[in-house]
Amino acid sequence: MKKIKSIFFLLSCFIFLSACSSLPGLPSNKDDHVISISGGITTETQILAGLVDGMIEHYTDYETSVINNLGTAQIDQQALNNGDVDISAGRYTGTDITTILKMDAIKDPKKAFDVSKEELKSRYNQVRFPSYGFDNTFAFMVREDTAEKYDLEKVSDLEEISDQLTVGTDRPWLTRVGDGYQGFIQEYGFDFATMLPMQIGLVYDAVASGSVDLVLGYSTDGRVASNNLVMLEDDHQFFPPYDATMIVRQELLDQYPECKEILDKLVDTIDTKTMQELNYQADNDLVEPSIVARQFLQENNYFEDN
């Protein structure tokens, strides 16, 4: 079986790309006999691209091309719109609602999925598949000993000790409109004693080492489990849902109708803990995302019973 693996690095800004009929670095009027799958710049989306690629390879004789490092959801969407990409393997409902569809954030997960699905179909003739089974959202996290000491289970439990806490978070969250720090204060009714901005990748080690008491991180990051961190329930549903799904051009499903049944096998197969473990294999053990994906499919017999 022939296999085409391509990695494209795109450095153009979205405004420029919007005016282009085809994205720089991607073939214009690509071979209709090659199914093109986009990953992203994160470990997680590249693993998801590997899963989609592996499933199509296992069940068909079609050629595929995996395109990683599409830097933003906007660039990824433009590639779908242009037909340079057939399947976007890792897209998140919350991001699509606000960034792609330019709508106000929707806090209810089912509504966010339904609205984004309907809008993507009506605007772009693209199909949002049901979730892989996990939601990669923001989550406040503490060490196990901190959770036990203060009996912490949900975010609202932090109110009584908020004036004692040093919090690590990525800098953009402090000023982001909507689901940023000011929005959090308004929703939960309290703030924290000290805020320490840092790169998002550093927050997990910072809380594990005791440099800070509490951090805001990503729920599916592999370092959550490896550092035995406790994620606190967002009991006010402040953060929008970010259910992970694939988006597929309707033209592909019309041309290769069997792809729908194949891709449906991936629905509800990965929970948050499993995604954490897969991310950890790539980020900590330095296993290539495509290999992590292939091993996961082999371990699960390519979900042949789904």
Automatic annotation (TrEMBL):
Coiled coil: none annotated. One of its GO terms (cellular component) is ATP-binding cassette (ABC) transporter complex. Residues 36-299 form the ABC-type glycine betaine transport system substrate-binding domain. The lineage of its organism: Bacteria, Bacillati, Bacillota, Bacilli, Lactobacillales. One of its GO terms (molecular function) is transmembrane transporter activity. Gene3D superfamilies: Osmoprotection protein (prox), domain 2, Periplasmic binding protein-like II. Residues 1-21 form the signal peptide. This is Putative osmoprotectant ABC transporter substrate-binding protein. It holds the Pfam family OpuAC.
